[in-house]
Specification:
Oligomer: homodimer
Keywords (chains A, B): ATP-binding, Kinase, Magnesium, Metal-binding, Nucleotide-binding, Pyruvate, Transferase
Pfam families (chains A, B): PEP-utilizers, PEP-utilizers_C, PPDK_N
Domain PEP-utilising enzyme C-terminal (chains A, B): 519-882
Shape of chain A: elongated
Helix content of chain A: 40-55%
Strand order of the largest sheet of chain A: 14-24-23-16-17-18-19-15
CATH architecture of the largest domain in chain A: Alpha-Beta Barrel
CATH topology of the largest domain in chain A: TIM Barrel
Distance between the termini of chain A: 44 Å
Radius of gyration of chain A: 35 Å
Number of domains of chain A: 5
Number of helices of chain A: 35
Largest interface: A-B, 56 and 55 residues
Largest sheet of chain A: 8 strands, mixed
Number of strands of chain A: 33
Strand content of chain A: 15-25%
Cofactor (chains A, B): Mg(2+)
Structural class of chain A: alpha/beta
Enzyme class (chains A, B): transferase
CATH superfamily of the largest domain in chain A: Phosphoenolpyruvate-binding domains
Chain lengths: 890, 890
Amino acid sequence: MNRQKKYVYLFNEGNAEMTGLLGGKGSGLAEMSNIGLNVPPGFTITTEACIDFLNSGDFPEGMWDQTLEKLHEIEKRTGKKYGGENPLLVSVRSGAPISMPGMMDTILNVGLNDSTLVSLIKATGNERFALDSYRRLIQMFGDVVFGIDKSYFEDIIRSVKVERNKKDDVDLDASDLRVIIEKFKELYIKNGKVFPLEPLDQLRISVEAVFRSWNSERAKVYRELNGIQDNLGTAVSIVSMVFGNMGNDSATGVAFTRDPNTGKKGIFAEYLTNAQGEDVVAGIRTPKEIEDLRNEIPSAYDELIRSASTLEKHYKDMQDIEFTVEKGIFYFLQTRTGKRSAKASIKIATDMAIEGLITREEALMRITPRILDTLLHPQIKRNGKEVKLGKGLAASPGAAVGMIVFTSEKAVEFAKEKKKCILVRPETTADDVRGMSVSEGFLTQKGGMTSHAAVVARAMGKPAVVGAETLNVNLKEESLTVGNITLREGDIVTVDGTSGEFYMGSVDLEVSKITEEALTLLEWADKIRKLGVRANANTPEEAIIARENGAEGIGLARTERMFLGGDRITIMRSMIMSNSLPERLKYLDLLLPMQIHDFVEFFRTMEGYPVIIRLLDPPLHEFLPNKEEIMNEMFSLKLKLTKSSDNFEIDSSIARLTDLNRIFQTIKNLEEFNPMLGFRGCRLGLIYPEIYEMQVRAIITAAKRVTEEGKTIYPEIMIPLVGVDNELRIIRERLEKVAKEVSGKEKVPYKFGTMIEIPRACLTADKIAKEADFFSFGTNDLTQMTFGYSRDDAEGKFMAAYIGEGILPYDPFTTVDEEGVGELMKMAVKKGKATKKTLEVGICGEQGGDPQTVEFCNRIGLDYVSASPLRIPIARLSAARSAIKLENDR
Amino acid sequence: MNRQKKYVYLFNEGNAEMTGLLGGKGSGLAEMSNIGLNVPPGFTITTEACIDFLNSGDFPEGMWDQTLEKLHEIEKRTGKKYGGENPLLVSVRSGAPISMPGMMDTILNVGLNDSTLVSLIKATGNERFALDSYRRLIQMFGDVVFGIDKSYFEDIIRSVKVERNKKDDVDLDASDLRVIIEKFKELYIKNGKVFPLEPLDQLRISVEAVFRSWNSERAKVYRELNGIQDNLGTAVSIVSMVFGNMGNDSATGVAFTRDPNTGKKGIFAEYLTNAQGEDVVAGIRTPKEIEDLRNEIPSAYDELIRSASTLEKHYKDMQDIEFTVEKGIFYFLQTRTGKRSAKASIKIATDMAIEGLITREEALMRITPRILDTLLHPQIKRNGKEVKLGKGLAASPGAAVGMIVFTSEKAVEFAKEKKKCILVRPETTADDVRGMSVSEGFLTQKGGMTSHAAVVARAMGKPAVVGAETLNVNLKEESLTVGNITLREGDIVTVDGTSGEFYMGSVDLEVSKITEEALTLLEWADKIRKLGVRANANTPEEAIIARENGAEGIGLARTERMFLGGDRITIMRSMIMSNSLPERLKYLDLLLPMQIHDFVEFFRTMEGYPVIIRLLDPPLHEFLPNKEEIMNEMFSLKLKLTKSSDNFEIDSSIARLTDLNRIFQTIKNLEEFNPMLGFRGCRLGLIYPEIYEMQVRAIITAAKRVTEEGKTIYPEIMIPLVGVDNELRIIRERLEKVAKEVSGKEKVPYKFGTMIEIPRACLTADKIAKEADFFSFGTNDLTQMTFGYSRDDAEGKFMAAYIGEGILPYDPFTTVDEEGVGELMKMAVKKGKATKKTLEVGICGEQGGDPQTVEFCNRIGLDYVSASPLRIPIARLSAARSAIKLENDR
């Protein structure tokens, strides 16, 4: 026997697991039926039927028969008859396997026609209700089935109200509604349609319409935007109507089992008495709150409270419910897991774990890093009145308001006067760091997601919009222009690093604070995670934030900054322009006490925690001024000389020219074709040993001093850009000598290790591990070299297109490329730990704060990740989630 | 019983295998004894004894006893007595396991004293001979044992000659020699020494002195320079004296069994009658040639001819022999494998294989690639009169003479007038290629071994000296200055790319031609090797050279050149400065016919062979002029404008300024921080598909045309800089469409493949292989990215120091770094061939012509190497040698 496929399920034949077949709504109704909640009898036609229908244009064989069979079953259960004397009405509701709120269609009161209308009036004794139900059916049917624009129906209602001087929908009486119904039918005719009077026709056509709505334009767009597959189909639930519009003991409403905005425990509901369907959402009347229901229909209130608790216990999550009260009796029409704000997500998960409803692990698995992230940065509070100037790349999240400054010097000056400022530059360089450190946020015309400005901003946790190409920054005139708007120094702008937008003037900001519950959750995360979490921090101030956010040490303290700012950059430049070792040593000696002071501060701040200090990394030319600017100044001076006749001016111009020429020559000597792959990092440290020696002298001297204060500290000295084991060996030998010399009898304990940021370092990690106590993956450079991408060039030139065209699934500078870069990392961990079991391996690239990367690092056996101070909570959470996933996968 | 160690071996107790213990000389003497050649009786004290002596300061236990025992044995064999009536004299000769010619010491006539002198005169009846032997002993002993400078002894001989009016040493009679001996003894006293009269003391002290000579300064330096271990020690051979100074039927000489300069078969010898030891080499008398010996001492001549053949058959190589004839009897004092010129090496190995003395494989294993290499380039023929101007890096071997030109244009002009020129530039760029192609050689002030000039020079096979930092090239004045010498356009210079030196004026060159024997050897190599050998050639001219040198196809034809030169660069620049696709297409259409023409030529030349064409690789800004030069010109124009009052001049200046400004803006837009890792290769091809599409259109059109001529060709299209499989997939899809469109019904066969030059491509080679018919390793870029070195920057800044300090064993841009880059290559071969068994894998990086790299490529299973046309013979030889080694290792 060719047994027919089952296309139709009574609610009590389904359950919560059958979402794929019955849709979210159908399975929810089934599950509620099963656990004894009051659901109107009904049944669901499967998504399979929908797919078959969409493919063939016809209902699949047997589906309609099964539908009629189940309809008959419902007639039995309700004691009503579809199209009969005591007429059974039904709603036809769509419900896809994945929630697509508002995208799909529902038709209520199906089964009403001119004849059953009379029966309904007779059966209920409520003419107005019956007419109201009828006009709703005609209205919804016209909209859903025939695509007659809703506004035409609304216009008719409005015109009748005006004509008859009625204010609200509820003021319309039976005679008004009859007029409306007639006008609705005329509207059909005008549109070349006829409202089908045969109830079974209504049902069939409604089911077909809901099926078809799966392929409506808006549904397709929604799916594309939300990454939902096109081949899922929608189920259709046929539910016997219960009526919220049967008078003041009737109502319809929605309820959340907890507050979706704050997460506070307790029912959060809105309802309308004597109303049906979408009235609550439609906003025609102002819905009432839950406390009113307690007074108006106490029996319904009690049932809601009781059932909400049942539902939460059953689903173990906050539920979003649709309900109808018919003559005091409470019916559930839908339940689903409720959407909620980030803050509420965290509170609900934490509370439920405390209540014992879920485990701590489950709570953690519900809080995606993105949820936590939105809590951590101040956000623009839009009011529609903002004047948006443009949009660039959202380089560092959060928003900031301040006065425009165009130079680092001016930023510092403003900061002294306690003026908040936004540094605006064509692009930033090391020279701007000082200004950046005192600015609220940054805006640049050029550069990508990993340009200097972007990287520094994320490290500082300050908002940044970069690569705003519509912007024109004119440094000479100290102005910025967008279209025909020109702003100047001191003008106020707002930058939103979360969206990449920037605004004229001051826009209100909303500053979220990390909540109590989030802190609890993070404490749980700390207990569960295996992966350590450290911070990338270049200053004691950043280190303090890192500690506050739960970092267990500093994974990367760059020392570049210690050569910048104030006198230091002048000394550094003199050092670079020196022609001999004694001359270089003279300038390094000047820097030594300043650096000792910096390290002392740092060690004190990080008492009890490891601090990884990376020795000088950038090429020397980064400490020199911009070549083009020097050339321009030289041109101007020469021009001046051709015109001037003032002796003093001539003399001073010549003197300046001489200076500039010297700087220009040094720049020319040092400039490189590909500085990223040039004379920097340990290469510099090997050719000019005196620089690293000075740094180590400063570190060990500072460590000794702080140790003598009775503090326990754990300095770790890290060498950048190692690709050959011999590099590390030679540097280690030299530096150990200095360390021994400085520490004297009392040995200052320290570790010695290396960045792993060159592909060759991964390939030869077994040999390199012999010379290192620790490895730290520098995934920025490792990604650049593994892909052969210069990040600064790639972001502006082709990265967007690459991601847009799907050549790359995501930006590998944001999330580690597991297939390529990750493969090298795995190799390095394996080879490194094979050589030295105690080898400590971490990551300090920017990806260290990215959740997917944190999980990857946990999977391949890293000891810790190091992220920017503000990303620490994200990293802690991600590490815990990864540990839980690994445990679950076992 | 504590059996004593054997420290002393009679010659007949040793053999040729015992070089380690008996040294080269000792084992040679032993072997000759064994094969029945006439060797004076003697024995050898082992290197072990030497090491023990050097460590402890004393002879090891039993050594001296064994020595005396063997001495006694020799007394028996010779019938003479050491220190006795018929006195046995011996030579004490050093001999290390590895030949250190001239480094170690020998003392002759040991055993003579005032008393044995009398006995010797009596025994030989030759007073003069005995006295001559005695003065030689005293002289050598004083030099070797006491370090009394040789010149003092020479001074005494000279003064006696003057005093007694004698011209040559042979003119000195017995009475003269007695005076000399007395004066020698006085010289000892003056130096606080005494000549030991006791013969056994002489022997002991001589052995000690020879042992000690192992650690002399000059020996240590020699070992360091030649990479010989310090712990080998020297053996000491004690040989009973035979005397070449016993009259005119006696002689001493050296012989090669074949001519060490030409390799010609037949004895090549020099000798002196009535002479001893170093007289031949010392150059005091002019040695005679072998034909003279035939006349003077026929018995000796016959014996030499006969024995030479025996020795060659025995050693299977050309031998370098020392001999002495004593009263017509021929004695061998030493044999060793003879040093020879490159040309001779090849002739001897080939001849011996033809003679059946060795196998062809053995012949190939004797010819190192370096030997072959010296044959391939013209070399400076020094005469001591050259005026050396300076020294830079030896970037491309060979030497060239020509007139100085400073610009590409001038080079072309000179070339038209058939003037040979040397292009001198601060550094070269793509703009200079045209000029380079018509110059004899290049000289640059800046740049490293892989700078543009160096790479192009090697590709063109032209001599180049680059990075000559003492040079000052002044383009404005068109002059070059070194120290106080200034040369101008048209002045003649000679550059020697083999040594890195350059000279004023014309220095004679020696042009070697590849010899008949070399061609034979290479034919053998072709039969033995498994690895294919292709050439990197960018023009049909280069392709012709490649074919002549035995290339089996083109492994890399760069298409960059097709966008340069003449009109093309102007069109290309217009294309780059276009603002829209239609505009770009317009210019590409102009380039299309030119490129079709180029490809047609190329395919015709390479009929029957595969040609791999690489689509455009460099970033677009490389086709634009230098930014700094533009800025300078703009400045000059502005300056002019401030001064000028000539309207026409003002107008034209402004017009030019406008143009320059447009170019300047384009440069600014395109310039990159790290162009090597920027917007180039397939990235460009993906964002501007029209460029690659034009190229493929040209290739397929040309292929179709040449195929229609009845020629069989094998075009292969290669995509540069692929790191992600999707890149290749998308490009393949696009290009296949163009190819299909062009080829029409008659399909033009072609392969499609990719460079493997990005670490990620190696890591994901399994996926990339799905989209490729072939892989070609671009080891230049792969090395840059794996190490994180920009070659242009590294060579100038730290590479020399890295190699000098042993951080790197060699330059990884010359020879593939097996540990890092090689590891990635292995991975790519394995993964690639696992996906696609038929995948063709080769290498086209510059290292492809390096012997060690060729061997590595053979070992890891590549199908071919591709090298610059002039390196093809080297690659063929290296490939064969690698095949033989692998076979031998089995």
